[in-house]
Amino acid sequence: MARKFIRTSIPLWLAILLIAVVGGVSVVISLYFREVVYERDLFVDRGEGNLQEFEYGSWSALSNADFFNSVKGRFVGNGSDFIEANLSDMKLKVYEKGVFVNEFAILSKGKEGSWWETPAGLYKVQSKEKEHFSSFGRVYQPWSMAFQGNFFIHGWPYYPGGRAVESTYSGGCIRLATEDAEKIYNLVEIGTPVLVFEEDFKSDGFIYKVKTPDLPATSYLAADLKSNFVFLKEFQNEEQVPIASITKLVTALVATEYIDLEKKIVVTKEMIVPTSKPRLKVGEAISVFQLLYPMLLESSNEAATALSRHFGEKYFINLMNEKAEALGMHKTHFADSSGKSAENVSSAEDLFVLAKYLYNNRSFILNMSAGNLSKSVYGSSMFSDLENFNVFAGEPEFVGGKIGLNNEAKSTIFSIFEIEIEGEKRPIAIVVLGSDDAGRDAKTILEYVKTSYERDNL
Predict the structure, then answer these.
(1) Considering 144, 245, 308, 338, which one is annotated as catalytic?
(2) 109, 124, 248, 323: which is the annotated catalytic residue?
(3) 245 catalytic residue (yes or no)
(4) What is the pLDDT of residues 281-331, one digit of tens each?
(5) DSSP alpha helix (H) spans, 259-362
(6) Domain architecture of the chain: domains with CATH
């Protein structure tokens, strides 16, 4: 079979062999390349003729410590200049020609769960300014190095007039001591790779002991998002099963990561599709952010369709499937953005992986689905009479989630809670698929977890 090449301006040092261990399964990604004048031709062969372009940006696999260390080791082995920003131990390291040069303390990062949280990824220094003025924060950022859109590495910010910002102030950047930022500024060039790592998925050591593990159900999973402890699981069918409108959580995820939230989408007649509660009108211009409200609260098929038509539905669905694959959801496949097709399938285990990513990296989606996103830089909902169809809406322990219902999937639910166990608040995900009443089953499971488990202090 003839191999095709994708043209890219990615430097030669990125043509590397990456070996990732994700979920105990080795994934080998072979990168083939040939050098041409001023450019490189590069394609990623994932086997069986599947080609994928290698790009800078958010890279979910880098949240896995084994994969991160493999990538970093290849950078060192290739003698590359790069910056390592480890947001777990709050250290920033500079390497020259693969050799460690210096280490600096990260004083603050983007608040977890905010719109400005920086996920793990491979970025690069896009620009440098000795004194960058942030029009959003209205502050000066000394020795600024932009590495991803509005994300910078910089020194301690200060207001016009010279007063330094408070320690709690953060716009999402990686903040260093000003003198440290100056040193790095003088060490690195524009185009230098920035390898960002934050290990959200390792166990934190919280151990449980079981009292009475007895609960009948259809197909379900209940587990702790931080310790990975599984309270209950039952899979009558371990293959892919339809998930209905749970699909819309990934629609929201892709929309927020690939489209400007302030982008206005003009409603066309093709977007007016059968839905639970019609909201949209042909000719209206509605922002991406506003469309998220009816989609997550009322499970609007109209809003999901409108979001997917921004890039073209086929391309948007492809992004959804690529995102699922990047997260390690290997039993998940999407056929549309609303979940109406029986070909929108997943497994309880895959949806637990999605729960971890949303909780750790995109919690504002959960907050919106729970009806708890009262304040946002993008304003409040333009829809004054929205209902929340989520079963647990209004309950203080409910973090967020989604319900689904159609003939093929039957009743489904994806919910995350923060419950107190032995005086400690724990994040618990509950997934129920193929049920006659998933809300009832989820309530039963939640009560079971609360009453049947306590912390094992041994």
Answers:
(1) 245
(2) 248
(3) yes
(4) 999 999 999 999 999 999 999 999 999 998 899 999 999 999 999 899 999
(5) 288-297, 301-308, 313-327, 348-361
(6) 1-55 (no CATH), 57-197 (2.40.440.10), 208-455 (3.40.710.10)
